[in-house]
Amino acid sequence: MIKVHLSRLMGEKRINIADLSRLTGLHRNGIAKLYNEETDGVKFDTLNRICEALDCEVQDIIEYIKEEKNDQNKRL
């Protein structure tokens, strides 16, 4: 599972979606989808712009979390 930490990061830096949109040149709707974890993909350019604006690393924004499989799935 991929977890997006943009909302936490933006909260820590006290920046809102409109501000991040202005800083990055990205559309507010795209940022909002990432913020709310409602997207199924993100372009490298988008991550680059966000990292530059928030002075952070990619791993501060997205994280891979290995999902635990239950015993029933292991048998399949």
From TrEMBL:
Limits of the HTH cro/C1-type domain: 6-61
Annotated InterPro entries: Cro/C1-type_HTH, Lambda_DNA-bd_dom_sf
Annotated SUPFAM superfamilies: lambda repressor-like DNA-binding domains
Family annotation (PROSITE patterns): HTH_CROC1 (PS50943)
Cleaved signal peptide residues: none
Top-rank taxon: Bacteria
Pfam families linked to this entry: HTH_26
Name of the protein: Helix-turn-helix domain-containing protein
Species, as recorded: Paenibacillus enshidis
